[in-house]
Amino acid sequence: MKNIKAVSLFSGGLDSILATRIVMEQDIDVTAVQFVTPFFHYSILQDIEGYQQKVLDRYGIKVRIEDISRGYMDLLKKPTYGFGKNFNPCVDCKILMLKRAKELMAELGASFLVTGEVLGQRPMSQRRDTLNVIERDSASKTILLRPLSAKLMKETQAERKGWVDRGKLFNFSGRGRSQQIALAREYNITDYPAPAGGCILADPVLSKRIQRLYEGKFAFALDEVGVGDIELMLVGRQLLMPLENGDKEQGVWLVVGRDEGENDRLEALAEEADAVLHMEERPGPMVIVRKASISVSQELLGSVLQTAASLVIRYGRKVDGAMPPAEVVCKVNGETRLLQGVAPEADWFQDWIF
Ligand code: SF4
Question: Whose CA is nearest to atom 3 of ligand 1?
Answer without folding.
Answer: 199
